[in-house]
Amino acid sequence: MRDTFWGMPLWLGAAVAVLIIFVRGQVYYWIGRTVGPRVYTSRIGRRVGEHRLRRVEAMVARRGALAVFAAHWVAGLRHAIPVSAGVVRMPLPRYLAASALGSALWTPPWVVGGYAVVWGWLEVFGRSPAATAALVAAVAALVAGLVAYRRRRRAPEDGARGADAPPAGERSGGPAG
After folding, report:
1. What are the angstrom distances between the C-alpha of 165 and each of 155, 156, 170?
2. Reduced to 3 states, what is the DSSP secondary structure of residue 127?
3. Secondary structure letter of residue 49 according to DSSP
4. How big is the chain by its Cα radius of gyration, in Å?
5. What is the DSSP letter of 175?
6. How confident is the prediction along the chain (177 residues), in pLDDT tens digits per residue?
């Protein structure tokens, strides 16, 4: 396993990753603080769903810094909670402390763990063509299985819709005319 990350010592790469995650949280906070509640009706807000974002806002209002800290461990919330914290105008010192602590505790295990997994797999597959072939076959089988599953799920919907649909040119629910 290599002992560098992005051309830096591993410890420095992890520290840079912590800084990146912390800065990302600040950007989200200031977007929420600047845009305010309009963020919920923005294009992205409509796509996520205003009701979902309002629930996140309520969580931030109820839990405060604990929500900001814990959000690092929950995909999706790690992006929505900082925005909502800005919208509700959480006091900046409290937000900064929770965000810094969450970034410092969440990021290194992912960086170092991911680094170890990637280099471990590369080591195994570099030494064993059979393991590489088995992985390729497993991925191909998984993709084929997912495609077949999705097709089977859609088939009953399409068939049911076709059988219940009125004949072409005929109105439903009103007098013919």
Report:
1. 15, 14, 10
2. helix
3. -
4. 25
5. -
6. 556 666 778 888 888 889 999 999 999 999 988 988 888 888 887 888 777 888 888 888 889 899 999 988 888 888 889 988 998 999 999 999 999 999 999 888 888 787 777 777 778 888 888 888 888 899 999 999 999 999 888 876 655 555 555 555 555 554 554
How far apart CA 152 and CA 81 sit, in angstroms, is: 37
For the chain, the structural domain boundaries read 4-120, 128-162
User: How much is the pTM?
Assistant: 0.64
Q: CA 112, CA 120: separation in Å to the nearest integer?
A: 12
CA geometry: angle 110, 116, 117, nearest 5 deg: 85
Note whether 107 and 78 are within 8 A (CB).
no
Instruction: Give CA–CA dist 103/72, Å, rounded.
Output: 7
